[in-house]
Write a structure and sequence with these properties.
161 residues, mainly alpha, 7 helices, DUF2165_transmembrane, transmembrane, DUF2165 family protein
């Protein structure tokens, strides 16, 4: 296999995998919207900090008890996920079937920009509501996904051969 073919193959696998992952995120949030909104509501209300042993912090003044902001936030995240998945599949098709990274790049970059936008929304919202104190795994997941989005951007935008 030539170097250019192996690079195309790796980029294609990554474009397909990213698009599939984003699509699963959309399906999950459509099927379990209430559960996802409930999880966001728990973070916004800072409920994990109230679990025993309670962690008292002045940051709890930021807590939002109403579930409406969480539902609104999930609608925004879901819209961004739909954009990301659609753009990802468009770019993956152009890359896999057309073999043309230059043609695929705008769609893949839109997918990655939307991906990074909803990740930053979750990560920054989590930081505001002190999720690092009791939801470390969630914070680390958001960081790992942001690293993935940057690595994918580099994969599709830097000359590799």
């Amino acid at each position: 296999m030539s170097a250019s073919t192996s690079i195309w193959l790796f980029q294609s696998v990554h474009a397909l995998g990213l698009s599939a992952w984003l699509s699963i995120a959309v399906i999950n949030n459509l099927q379990a919207f209430a559960g996802s909104a409930g999880a966001v509501s728990a973070t916004l209300s800072m409920a994990p900090l109230k679990q025993a042993p309670e962690i008292a912090t002045p940051l709890q003044a930021r807590a939002i008890a109403s579930p409406l902001p969480a539902r609104f936030a999930m609608l925004i995240v879901l819209a961004l996920q739909i954009i990301a998945a659609g753009a990802g599949w468009t770019g993956a098709y152009a890359l896999v079937v057309g073999g043309d990274l230059a043609l695929a790049r705008p769609a893949l970059n839109l997918a990655l920009s939307s991906f990074a936008t909803f990740l930053f929304a979750m990560h920054l919202g989590g930081m505001w509501f002190a999720y690092w104190i009791r939801q470390e795994g969630l914070q680390l997941t958001h960081i790992a996904l942001l690293v993935w989005s940057v690595a994918a951007f580099l994969l599709f935008n830097l000359p590799l051969a």
